[in-house]
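help with this record:
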Amino acid sequence: MKKRFTLPLSLLTTSLGLSLFFVTVPTALSQSNQTPTNSITIAQARNIRLLFINRCQSTPIRLAVRFRNNTGDWETASWYNFDPQEGPTSLRGVVTNNRIFYYYAEATDNSGRVWSGDHPVNIGGRTYQMTEVNIRSGATQFTQGLTCNDESPTPTPNPNPSPTPDPINYMQPETAPTVRAERSVTLSTRATGGATVTLNRGGRLYIEGRSRSRHITRASRPTVTVVGLDRVGRELFVSEHFDIPTACSTTDPTCQSIRFKSNTQYISPDIAKYVHSMQLEFTERRGRSVSDRVARNILRACQNYTNLPPSVRTAIGASATAVSGGTGGGVVGGVEAFCGIRSR
């Protein structure tokens, strides 16, 4: 039975002082391998629904995709987890009207299976080779299947199964000394921006950037939330939102507001050592809408946390002590601090 947790409002209103790096770059990730633009394939008037299906009999997988969003920018989304024979399923947050997209998938059962191509994309500081897919003209829906060719169609049960191994075996601490995430966006009010976030294994979370807007975006407060994920895509921490208000007014139509900020926060090292990648979720501040969004993110992390192996929860919970940081103090202690869960 899943437990319900009540989230203190003080945790949702504490500013962590996250910094944004707002730049006017045309891609969702500023990296050297720019995805080529094709004026024919992006000129689609109708969104294409992308579906994925895991046709493997016993192999769970995780999936990343790169697509051109409806603002015309290339965006990378990761990670989406599929159980064996799950799908066809659409991907949350993936909306495109472009006939070309890229994907990369890998098994999460230590079998070593990968579905890759020759298009390099950086995710969390690591380069993955994605496969290009070109959807036929006029299609409104496309299904991409993932098949395990070397897998037995009907797996034979082991009459003498060995004891279930401790799940900590697939939750070994990451070896890379840091995790890095970067993203750029154009908001609906024409403010532009992005964020660069770096987390080291000691728990130091550093964010840098700037916001840029004109007088027509005076009511816009670009907002970012950082979500830390483990190797199989489960959330391990969720930051509180941070927004940078602009300084323009209607009396000065030539105004351009640029704000620079940077900040350092800390999470528990016993959480940081399991973080494989980070997602940057952007929105615009509109009253309680941002707080509600953060509450949903934290609840999602809490629900994922209850499904982690007991040994992993124990390791994370052993020192998941919140540490203040940022202007006015902040709390980023991982799901232990947010959910009040006791390791068991």
